[in-house]
Amino acid sequence: MRESKVAVVIVEYRDASLAEACIGSLQRGTFRDFSVFLIDNTPRGAGVPDPKTDRFPVTEDVPQVRYIASGENIGFCAGCNVGIELALAEGFDHVLILNYDTVAAPDFLESLVLRARSLYQAGRLGILGAKIHYQSAEENRGRRLWYAGGRLSRLLGVGKHFGYDEMDNGDYDAFREVSYVTGCCMLIPAETLRKAGGFKSELFMYLDDAEFCLRVRDHGFRLYYEPSAVLAHKVGPGFGKRNYPDYYLYFSIRNKPWITRRPLYRLYLFTFTLALAAGKLAYYGFSPGIKHRARKVRAIFWGVWDSFSSRHAAEKRFPELFAARGLV
Which CA distances in Å does 53 have to 14, 35, 66, 224? Predict the structure, then answer.
């Protein structure tokens, strides 16, 4: 079988140092036949300097990095699609969607590609995921699992992580078929993308991976987890139930009914979203010690409202996500 050319698509937002650490870890790895498409969604404007053009110098022994500046925050989904379209047009065999706040083990990409090659002989590979640890300076966090395979819960309309927050003691070291692969790391054959399409841009971010996994499986492809490919993930700040960012509450509610095109399932998810939002309103509205209570309640309300009326109101709801100066 011929060599597998991999396009690594990374969407960057505001923190350039994270993307540089991620790409550096790939460049130091054992697999060399890849190029990086770095999509920068950092909003540009007064007071925001243009990115350095020499961040990734080109040499003979360092894989190429293609830098594409959106100039605005077009969202994770649309950013991924920019890279996917370029990769397909240039004839890459696989596209690796990778969060910019990850660091790869030296044999990470080699392990993924070797497994992908073997799966061509066994069946229709749709998406291949990796083992993902928390990246943290805290004692004993370096070997704590964030994702070790997953299950797509149709009842909840969300992907559930196997091994979540458990110590990595070898219980999740078996290669297996799964029903959900996190959007933090997805190796996707070009064939899958040509038949199933890319990400759903109007979701912007959050639950986009659940929607994509559902759609890929509906096209007859299979999803797998490869434990020998290991990443460290710097999970977003404030991600604990009491301190979920407002925009996370909004998108996770607004997007839930839109992860499927099936009318009856979508109707169920709309109904479930109302019940979910009622519970969240009670929790954030009355639980003691909640910071920025009014903002969280408002985000939940707008999430429900926009799930019925508009999927394009995010810029009005959270202007700080789109401003040249704002959320850091």
Answer: 16, 17, 10, 37
Cα gap 252→284, rounded to integer Å: 15
- 223: number of Cβ within 10 Å: 22
pLDDT tens for residues 185-238? Answer: 999 999 999 999 999 999 999 999 999 999 999 999 999 999 999 999 987 544
User: In angstroms, rounded to a whole number, what is the distance separating the alpha carbons of residues 62 and 19?
Assistant: 16
Please report where in the chains the tokens 């999740």 appear, as a residue. Answer: 172
- In the chain, DSSP assigns E strands to 6-12, 34-40, 65-69, 94-98, 102-104, 125-134, 145-147, 150-153, 158-161, 176-178, 185-189, 222-233
Determine the 3-state secondary structure of 219 from DSSP: coil
End-to-end CA distance of the chain: 45
User: Rounded to whole angstroms, how far apart are CA atoms 269 and 275?
Assistant: 10
Give the model confidence (pLDDT) of 36-92 as tens digits.
999 999 998 745 556 665 677 666 667 789 999 998 999 999 999 999 999 999 999
DSSP label at residue 236: P
Q: What is the DSSP letter of 167?
A: B
Q: Rounded to an integer, what distance in angstroms lies between the CA atom of residue 213 and that of residue 225?
A: 13
d(CA 250, CA 50): 30
**How many CA atoms lie less than 13 Å away from 267 in the CB half-sphere?**
2
d(CA 181, CA 149): 7
Contact between 130 and 108 (Cβ < 8 Å)? yes
pLDDT of residue 82: 98
Q: What are the beta bridge partners of residue 222? A: 125
Helix (H, G, I), strand (E, B) or coil at 292: coil
